[in-house]
Target: Catalase
Amino acid sequence: MSKQPNPADNSQMAGSDTLDRSNSNAKLEQLERFREDATGEALTANTGTRIADNQNSLRGGERGPTLMEDFIMREKITHFDHERIPERVVHARGAGAHGYFEVTDPISDLSCAAFLGEAGKRTPVFVRFSTVQGPRGSADTVRDVRGFAVKFYTEEGNFDLVGNNMPVFFIQDAIKFPDFVHAVKPEPHNEIPTGASAHDTFWDFVSLTPESAHMVLWTMSDRAIPIAYRSMQGFGVHSFRLVNGEGQSKLVKFHWRPKAGVCSLVWDEAQKLAGKDPDFHRRGLWEDIERGLYPEWELGLQVMDEEDALSFGFDLLDPTKLVPEELVPVRVVGRMVLNRNPDNFFAETEQAAFHIGHVVPGIDFSNDPLLQGRLFSYTDTQLLRLGGPNFNEIPINRPLCPFHNNQRDAPHRQQINRGRASYEPNSIDGNWPRETPPAPSGGGYSSYPEPLQGHKVRVRSASFGDHFSQATLFWRSMSETEQQHIVDAYSFELSKVERLYIRERQVKDILAHIDPLLALRVAENLGIDLDSTSTPKMDDKAEVSPALSQMNLLPGDILGRRVAILLTPGCKADEVGSLKKMLEAAGAVAKLLAPSAAALKDSDGQPMQPDGSFASEPSITVDAVFVPGGEYVLKTLQDDGVAKHYLLEAYKHLKPLALSGDAAQLAALLGLEEDDGMLCGDSFDPLYMRFETALKQHRIWAREMRAKSIPA
Ligand code: HDE
Model:
């Protein structure tokens, strides 16, 4: 294979945010020679023969049969017939983007990984976000865990951090994964439901599997309905191992912290989006990157001594446990910016093959039994999905650093290996390619020499035995609003379970052990009798972890927020202009919407072209709504059912709404009570200031009770 430029050379990497994008992309393209652009090129067969007619197949006579001889038509249709590959068995639905990782606090004290060792060093990354349950064509906004998989193309090889947006998992041992996945997937007899866990087999399994209690609580929380990929935290989940140049090792948990804060949809909104814009998350990611509003995360580490593996009151090897940040603070070591959309979904996002076993010197594994099983699964699944063992040669998967070995042949081999010896040791080719001594002197990978002892057994360590304490911690750390959403989610999901004994088991055997009040509230909604003597007593002094509540993780700015500006004939041109300017200056996206997609005349008599209509860009696709004043604003909107629904729905979903000038009369008309986010005003500047403050809060939670009476 030809030598590629070293990806660790920062000058080659996706440039700084301020660099001209096309310039930095051109540099990357030098690295990625496999990208193809057919502009200006002739249409050819795969063998290069130029095609004269791509409209008609070869026929025996104008009205006669098509001839077998038509190699052009046959090649084209054969290729088409084979276009699909098996979708991922889990995480089938996803979207990806390119970007870079930059070190802010080098950690050579902890790891000899070169890509983490120097401040300012940049490494290209490809990230794929996904849902777990649904197939490739399913909706983005369903209640589910999100995959958060990052491939770092480091100078020492690829490192894949294949994580989720929740810090724990449903099971403790890989051998249970097929059971769990079979239970959550659509039911086998009718393949229903798509993209949902609200069905009997899922709740049957989890109610019989207490180790899932903590993670199920996370999936019933707002974390399972993120507003955007850019607003999700990411977690490596397992304890991994870092090894430094002296061979010293520490256990580590990886964290991604979003600059955009952690924000979620509300459930009604998530459900409606699944129908009106099933691509909501992938569209948001794509559009933000095209607009230059690059999603960004900090990479943080929680570092623990191996001797402390059991000293926190749980086992660091147990993937159903998190390490509270109040116990071990997160050390931020770098940042990741996504700044380039893929050129081709299939070639990049669909063919990306992540593997928890893709590591570089300085990063190693722990004995977490879930992690250990994953080390087998990911290569195995790619063999089927990508059709053989050469998937590392597919452009999106190949390292940007050189790679050479004696592996040969197999389907779809891309490399043409020169030389006579494909074994080692050899004397015919000078014994090349050769081993490298271990890091740090040589840089060869050597596994941490962890001492092992014990009998060959199939047992679960007793230190994995407490399934409820951390679920309780999570529940108690939630704000009242978040707790209410969790109660609503359990009640919704369990009410879809047909078998009443499964509902009851989940409430009595699981929820009651997390918190009696949680159990009581869900039981009440389901009409289940909970004998208070059967619910365990809880310790009232149970601890809380403020870092777990997303109410404490708001961004403090409005970057990337989408604001609908509802235009009406005669709307005030100066207000619309100022609003657009101020929102864009703050990094928000202003969407001009009108009763139809046609241009209308503003207060100056000038045509104003909307970006879309009230119907084409429904309120569920935006974060807030502003109605500028204008001569006909009241008349136009009060007679327009779609517009009224727009405002009512935005109000119901607790979004900031501003009604300026004459538009303010709509509030009384629609029964929208003024509050911290339902704002009316005659004077634009103060109204805008209040609006922006409300937008920073993301939702007006205090409105939630009142909004329940809104039918939209
Ligand atoms: Fe995965 N997982 N997983 N998983 N996983 C896959 O690999 C598996 C687990 C995660 O965007 C598969 O290429 C087993 C935990 C993500 O392409 C498969 C177990 C976490 C993605 C697989 C787990 C994950 C996958 C399916 C239990 C969070 C999508 C397609 C031992 C830390 C990656 C594929 C992408 C994908 C197996 C548990 C994250 C079948 C056996 C825990 C983000 O190999």
Observations:
- The radius of gyration is 28 Å.
- The domain at 1-38+87-416+423-447+466-555 is CATH 2.40.180.10 (Catalase HpII,  Chain A, domain 1).
- Confidence is low (pLDDT under 50) at residues 1-21.
